[in-house]
Amino acid sequence: MPEPRAVVIGSGIGGLTAAVALHRSGWQVTVLEQAASLEPVGAGIGLAPNGQRALDVIGLGDDIRELSAWQGDGGMRTPRGRWLARTNSAAAAERFGGPLVLLHRATLVDRIAALLPAGAVHTASAARLTDPGAADGRPARVTTADAEFEAELVVGADGIHSAVRTALFPAHQGPAYSGFTTWRVVVPGLGRPFAPHETWGAGTLWGTQPLKDGRIYAYAAAVAPAGDRAEDEKAQLLRRFGDWHDPVPAVIAAADPRQVLRNDVHHLIDPLPAFHSGRTVLVGDSAHAMAPTLGQGGNQAIEDGIVLAHHLAPGAELGVGLAAYSADRLPRTTAVVRKAARVARVMSLTSRPAVAARNTLMSAVSRLGPGVVLRTFDGIADWQPPRRPYADQAHGRGHSVREAP
Questions:
Q1: DSSP assignment string, 251-319
Q2: Could you tell me the sign of the dihedral formed by the alpha carbons of 344, 346, 350, 355, in that order?
Q3: Most confident option among 284-298, 354-368, 388-402
Q4: Which one-letter DSSP state was computed for residue 143?
Q5: Is residue 313 within 8 Å of 26, Cβ to Cβ?
Q6: What is the pLDDT of residues 168-219, one digit of tens each?
Q7: Bridge partners, residue 5, by sequence
Q8: 247 prior amide bond cis, ω within 30
Q9: pLDDT (tens digit per residue) in 334-363
Q10: Which of 167, 115, 135 is nearest to 9 (CA)?
Q11: What is the structure's pLDDT at 18?
Q12: In this structure, what are the phi and psi dihedrals at residue 27, rounded to the nearest 5 degrees?
């Protein structure tokens, strides 16, 4: 019996994870990416224990932990440098089964893609869903400029402004602007240590995190009109954050203006009715774009790929499997999207009295101990895959995500 065929539209983290997981489950996988190469640019990404456990299922968890910086103790500060709250990495690892780790997004993409068969990824292949198929009948069809693909399954992983999502659910209003914009940058190390931190101002945010190779990943956010842009985004960062506490000015000074990434944040605050229709299914931002305020966008996309493959073992009834995937993922991701939006609203406060009240509350909560703060991630970071994790153990080299490196 020939392998069932799956076409994945988009080669981001969710699409590639789904492709690898489906391939390991017995699917013949083709990935179509409109860009000329696989995400050659990007910034950092944090992988929480739930995302790491999902990667364990496809045998990648240990490699990623080895390549990553394990987040140390840090906390939340004011722009002047006062600590509002301290984080305890040991308490977080104990509560959720492992630490948060950070690495460059391009490294993660490369490592996932390397698990696919040669020739599975087609770059410079802008794809269009021409027929979503019928789960109990006709196959799905995808076309590019020079080819047509017929498949038992199509995975829409084409991002926040997904054309696949629009084709499946044309009546849905799609993503809404969250009210704030973000910047991301990776810079060389400063030659001196610093505590990882996230700093909240009035409708503004800055985070500084070290990577394992000595570089620094920094991210920022600010309330701004949709589509607002500056000719020089580094100068914009300097204007908004240049007088903040150390090491923020030094990080901005070290940034290459050509490498400062800026993106407005859109989210699917109104959930889709389902994540599938016919033989076509959505993963990642295509299904549940969210604000980055919980650091869960990539983690949830990785979960999607693992759960999808779990429900679509070859030989199983496709319609039942897709319905089970939607039933698993829709409530969970909707809850994460809405929690991220609530945190974003708190970050976006701009009036002086509201910011002062927010800071006072954060300080008071922090004094109650790390467990109170960590409750924000209960039910998120402690997620377990639907199949045995720690797949690296099958190769004699795995370890529990609880262990230190």
A1: HHHH--GGG-EEEEEEE--S--S-SEETTEEE-THHHH---GGGS-HHHHHHHHHHHHHHH--TTS-HH
A2: negative
A3: 284-298
A4: E
A5: yes
A6: 999 999 999 999 999 999 999 999 989 999 999 999 999 999 999 999 999 9
A7: 28
A8: yes
A9: 999 999 999 999 999 999 999 999 999 999
A10: 167
A11: 98
A12: -90, 150
User: Which amino acid makes up residue 214?
Assistant: G
Q: Please tell me the predicted confidence (pLDDT) of residue 403.
A: 39
Count of H-run helices and E-run strands, the chain: 13, 19
Q: How far apart are CA 59 and CA 402, in angstroms?
A: 16
189 Rama class: left (phi>0) / alpha (psi -120 to 50) / beta: beta
For the segment 2-16, the average pLDDT, to the nearest whole number, is: 95
DSSP sequence for 335-391: HHHHHHHHHHHHHT--SHHHHHHHHHHHHHHHHT-HHHHHGGGTTTTT---SS---G
Encoded tokens for 164: 């696949």
Tally Cβ neighbours within 10 Å of residue 50.
24
pLDDT-based confidence at residue 41 (cuts at 50, 70, 90): low
> What distance lies between CA 33 and its chain's CA centroid?
18
Token output for 150: 């017929």
Sorted by sequence, the CB contacts under 8 Å of residue 19 that are 6+ apart come out as 6, 8, 29, 31, 116, 120, 155, 305
> Residue 116 phi/psi, 5° resolution?
-90, 155
Taking only the tens place, the pLDDT of each residue in 90-138 is 989 999 999 999 999 999 999 999 999 999 999 999 999 999 999 888 9
Distance of CA 6 to the CA centre of its chain: 23
> What confidence score (pLDDT) does residue 140 get?
97
DSSP, collapsed to helix, strand or coil, labels residue 72 as coil
Q: How far apart are CA 77 and CA 205, in angstroms?
A: 10
Q: Is the pLDDT confidence value at 88 over 80?
A: yes
Angle at CA of residue 16, ends 10 and 20, nearest 5°: 140
State how far the Cα of 26 lies from the Cα of 352, in Å rounded to an integer.
Answer: 57
What whole-number percentage of the chain has pLDDT above 70? 94
Spatial separation of the C-alpha atoms in residues 340 and 334, rounded to whole Å: 10
